[in-house]
Amino acid sequence: MSVVVQSTRGWVLDARSLIDEGYSRCLRLRDKSHVKCRFKSQCFQILKSHYSVSASAAVDEGSTDMLQKTDKASKKRKRKHSELNQGEIDSQAFHEKIRSVVLEGTKSLMDSAQSLGHLNGVTDAVKEPLPSQECSLAALCEMAKELPLVDEDEQEECVQPLVAEGGCTSHVDLFSRVTENGEEWATVVTLMGEEYVIPPHTAFLLSDFTRMRPLVHYGRRFDLIVMDPPWENKSVKRSRRYSSLPSSQLKRLPIPMLASPNCLVVTWVTNRPSHLRFVRDELYPHWGVEVVAEWLWVKVTTSGQFVFPLDSHHKKPYEVLVLGRYRSTADNATSSSGTSEAPVEDQRLIVSVPSALHSQKPSLSEVLKPHVGAEAKCLELFARSLQPGWTSWGNEVLQFQHASYFTLTPADDGAEVPRGGAAD
């Protein structure tokens, strides 16, 4: 069960189950065998929080006790207020504004989850190391930028099937065409000499800003657009884990060309107030998107503790999502999925155990479904993985689809193996 708890305060999610739901049926293309496919459990076994002994406090210790401890920490911070720079002062002000929502909401949601037997510290006890496969496709994407752009008049079909007739994938052009897996089954395919697990009814484009034209020409307008930009910050520059992007460059994203009327636009934002202000005051207005809510993703351990101290100066146990509606010139238009616009409540919490893999976010498909409809067309920008039924774009779009992140075992349930051919 991927949605463990749902209430007026938000949701508790099982992030791994959200991934596994897309792979209930999986076909290994090279030998046409039916396999069981699950994302590796050790990626979501965050057993301990990063609390110091003096400041440790589990969410389930009780809100009164937690409030007393965090209030003492808050008083200590105020004495050092003059030592903070402006960015830190702004960050602290935002934190004080939402901390009670995080503290009380998480306590309520965790109480419900633990009463149902979830987040009680029980794990699969898998002691294998985390997958460390480097996706070579990102490097190939960088090399593809050196190829000359094709004139629009000479542009061939911008869409291609993942699996051609006869089960061949050797000629798939990942960098200048949208690739579709129209099958009912997830498919394990070999791309550029590596195996990847591709969910059913999904489409993706592996490119950067300079090669987005196939996505624009794809011919779809989306009812939901989710993005997790590679924000600039000092830790990213030090670690060199991925290339960051100046905030101003995000304005180049062709959202008005991709969004349907009233499209819900959701952006993951770091805890830097400057990034939050940029999204609210510059980026969304530039696209014609109206801010409607801010949600918070709260990260907890397998036993329900915050992964970082709630009042930590350096890292917080939450991240912000800014939700907005794209307002086209047709004020009374409805979305292409034919659903009416549902109101989006403010300050909802999404509580889950985070992935130990860098920058892997939980799927928002289930929590956003009431606001876009079950049949909505969904797009993820700066994606590092794929979702069933979604279109995804980014220069690392297959990062977490590499077979090394999954446990693949022969199926013994007698399931019928499909003979091929795209789904209707």
TrEMBL record:
InterPro entries per UniProt: DNA_methylase_N6_adenine_CS, MT-A70-like, SAM-dependent_MTases_sf
Superkingdom of the organism of origin: Eukaryota
Region ranges (Disordered): 66-86
GO CC annotation terms, alphabetical: cytosol; nucleus
Cited SUPFAM superfamilies: S-adenosyl-L-methionine-dependent methyltransferases
GO BP annotation list: methylation
Molecular functions per Gene Ontology: nucleic acid binding; RNA methyltransferase activity; site-specific DNA-methyltransferase (adenine-specific) activity
Pfam hit, one: MT-A70
Alphabetized PANTHER family for the sequence: N(6)-ADENINE-SPECIFIC METHYLTRANSFERASE METTL4, N6-ADENOSINE-METHYLTRANSFERASE
Protein name listed in UniProt: Methyltransferase-like protein 4
Organism: Zoarces viviparus
